[in-house]
Design brief:
β12 (about 215-220) and β13 (about 225) form a beta hairpin. With about 300 residues, the protein is of the alpha/beta class. It has helices spanning about 40-50, 65-75, 120-125, 125-130, 140-155, 170-175, 185-195, 200-205, 240-255, 260-270, 285-295; strands spanning about 5-10, 10-20, 30-40, 55-65, 85-90, 95-100, 105-110, 135, 160, 180, 210, 215-220, 225. It has a single domain (about 5-20, about 35-295), classed as UDP-N-acetylmuramoyl-L-alanine:D-glutamate ligase.
């Protein structure tokens, strides 16, 4: 049976500058290189899942401009279904990324991503209903995310919500998703800012699969478990979390148990940082298999 994954989220063009140090307020520093590369959390996660062999549909919006056309063509070339990417009369979203010493700082301008409406999602209920997993993030309107989760619940489709960029989320939304995938910083804000009772807080914490960079991943399955990170040479950490999320969706869609799915996603995230670019660094299933065999050997 086809492993069908639906991703609803942002589509950006990333404007990437590499430098030796991040500028302080009011400071100018020299960069060593610049490139434009496809990005956006929704698109990144869709590409990650498609490169791992899933049948991936991306629902989103791009602008009626040069970036919009380029991004749709690129996604098609990566094996992502783009039938439900709508072109709107707003500029395509962009992310301005500065890389320095293996770390990054990012400014996102949502643009067309803000036009992804509740109505668009309602019209695509059939697409959600036919999926193994629905994967979402927070670079699109929150009302749209909420409606997508409701529709997935209606059709008993498993939901992964990557709560980034972090914001205050209604507990009704948190309770409707199957898994939350914050990093450590996002988890802290998610739990402390969402006005939860002690019981609700425990329930949400147990849904969290927390990515911790070079410290690995923690999750709950009967008890809290820590999965260590793989040791790799970091070239560009941009998109590592998105690689993890796309891989997690693929593994769960294939029917893997949670711990096995997390181990697989952890390997995908590790491999993704060994190359430059969010999407260009994402590994294929064959590369992941080879990497895991080399570790086990």
């Amino acid at each position: 049976m086809t492993n069908k994954i639906t991703v609803i989220g942002s589509i950006n063009m990333d404007l990437v500058t590499r430098t030796t140090s991040l500028p302080q307020m009011g400071e100018t520093v020299l960069g060593s290189s610049f490139l434009t590369t496809p990005g956006g959390k929704g698109a990144n996660q869709a590409v990650a899942a498609a490169k791992l062999g899933a049948d991936v549909t991306l629902i989103g919006c791009v602008g009626d401009d040069m970036f919009g056309d380029q991004l749709k063509r690129h996604l098609q070339n990566q094996g992502v279904r783009t039938d439900y990417i709508k072109t709107v009369k707003v500029e395509t979203g962009i992310a301005s990324i500065t890389l320095a010493n293996g770390d990054n700082s990012i400014i996102v301008v949502p643009g067309a991503n803000s036009e992804l409406s509740v109505q668009m999602v309602e019209e695509l209920e059939h697409e959600i209903a036919g999926s193994k997993v629905l994967l979402l993030q927070l670079e699109i309107p929150l009302a749209t995310v909420y409606k997508a989760v409701e529709l997935a619940n209606k059709h008993k489709v498993r939901v992964i919500l990557n709560p980034a960029p972090i914001q205050l989320l209604p507990k009704e939304l948190l309770q409707k998703v199957d898994y939350l995938t914050p990093n450590e910083y996002e988890q802290t804000l998610l739990i402390t800012a969402s006005q939860l009772t002690a019981t609700e807080r425990k329930e949400i914490e147990e849904k969290c699969i927390v990515t911790k960079g070079n410290k690995g991943v923690s999750f709950f399955e009967k008890f809290f478990t820590e999965v260590p990170a793989y040791t790799v040479e970091v070239v560009d950490s941009t998109g590592a979390g998105d690689s993890f999320n796309g891989a997690l969706a693929v593994a769960l869609g294939e029917g893997k148990m949670l711990q096995e799915a997390i181990l697989f996603a952890n390997a995908v995230g590790a491999l993704s940082v060994t190359k430059l670019g969010a999407q260009t660094g994402m590994p294929t299933k064959e590369e992941v298999t080879s990497f895991l065999l080399s570790i086990e050997g």
